[in-house]
Amino acid sequence: MSTSEDYVSAFVESYRGEVCKLSEKEKSFLRTEETLLPPCQVEILEFSQPYRLVLLCFFGESRPDLETSFRKSDWQHLSALVEELASKHKVGTGPLFKMIKGFNSMDSQSIYSLDGFKGALGLCFPHDVRLGNWALAKTVEGSSAVAVAKDVFHLNLGQAQDC
Fold this sequence. Notes:
Blueprint: H1 3-20, H2 24-27, E1 41-48, E2 52-58, E3 68-74, H3 78-89, H4 93-104, E4 113-117, E5 120-125, H5 145-162
Parallel strand pairs: 1-3
Antiparallel strand pairs: 1-2, 2-5, 4-5
Helix pairs in contact: 1-5, 3-4
C-alpha cells in the first residue's frame, strides 16, 4: 500500500469507529453516505492552482471495500476526469461535476469542505493533510489520519444536528 492508501484506510476506519459510537438518534442526523460504511471506495484527487486534496467516496456494491486510487489532476481537465469517475463508479456526471467544481472555489482559509449526493461523498482540504498540515492539530490528537477523521466527523455531526 502507498502512503496515500494507508492514510485513507486509517481515516475511513477511524471515521467508521466514530459512527459506531453514536446512538440511533444521533445516527439519524447523518445521510447514509456520511457514515462511510462498507463498501466504500475512495478516489484521492490532488489538484493544483488552487491546491485541493479531494477524497471522493463511492459506495458500489460490486467493488471491494477500501479500494483506493490516487491521481493528480488539473482543473482544466475536470470534465474528462468526471466522465471517467462517473462511469467507473456508476454515478451521475452532473452531480459529480457540480460537487468537484464547487471544491475549486472553496475558501483557502477553510479547514475542509464536505459535499455529497446519493452514492457519493466528497471531502476536500485546501492543504495536504497527509503531510501533517491539519488546521486543528494544536487542539486535538495531532495531524494523524485518525485525528483528522475524528475532527471532521464531529464537526460534520455538529453541523448536521444544527440543521
